[in-house]
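We now fix the convention by which a protein and its fold are recorded. The integers have meaning only within a learned vocabulary of local backbone shapes. The record below shows the convention in full.
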Amino acid sequence: MCFRFKKKKAIKVTNNKYFLGEQVNFKYRGEIRPGFVYSMKQDELGKVIYQIQIGGECPAIINDVQEEDIVYVRKRY
């Protein structure tokens, strides 16, 4: 039996300040943590919500980080 899976359509995100792979600092549980933008999506109201990857050797992904919670963007050299 051969199963066919449908590809998910890519959702276009507009009005985003930060891009994939960008290194940012964000507020999480009362602390400021460094991380990388892993993915992004838009909710029903049009707000951009980010998934941010933290950690090095054993990374974790923090879901549903609002754009207001990102406080600083580290510049690329």
